[in-house]
Amino acid sequence: MRVMATRIPLIDTTHCSGCGACIGACAPGVLAFEHRGWRKVTVLQAEDPCTGCGKCQIRCWTHAIRM
User: Fold this and answer.
1) Which pLDDT tens digit goes with each residue over 7-46?
2) Which pTM value belongs to this model?
3) Can you tell me the distance from the alpha carbon of 17 to that of 28, in angstroms, rounded to the nearest whole number?
């Protein structure tokens, strides 16, 4: 029996604008804002609830998220 790994979002915070579009698109709610100095960026809070749907990647207009 082969187990398939769930894809998780990989976020390049150097390209993240902090707009929150990906957070709004995430049904399981695994993405959140984090303050990095004077900027806010999106980070993955927990991998387990992520379904790997890719909606966050689609909504990211800066292309900061890869699956």
Assistant:
1) 899 999 999 999 999 999 999 999 999 999 999 999 999 9
2) 0.84
3) 21
Write the DSSP assignment of 7-67 as a string of letters: P--EE-TTT-----HHHHH-SS--EEEEEETTEEEEEE--STT-----HHHHH-TT--EE-
Q: How far apart are CA 52 and CA 54, in angstroms?
A: 6
Burial class (CB in 10 A: 0-12, 13-18, 19+), 44: middle
Are 25 and 59 a contacting pair, CB within 8 Å? yes
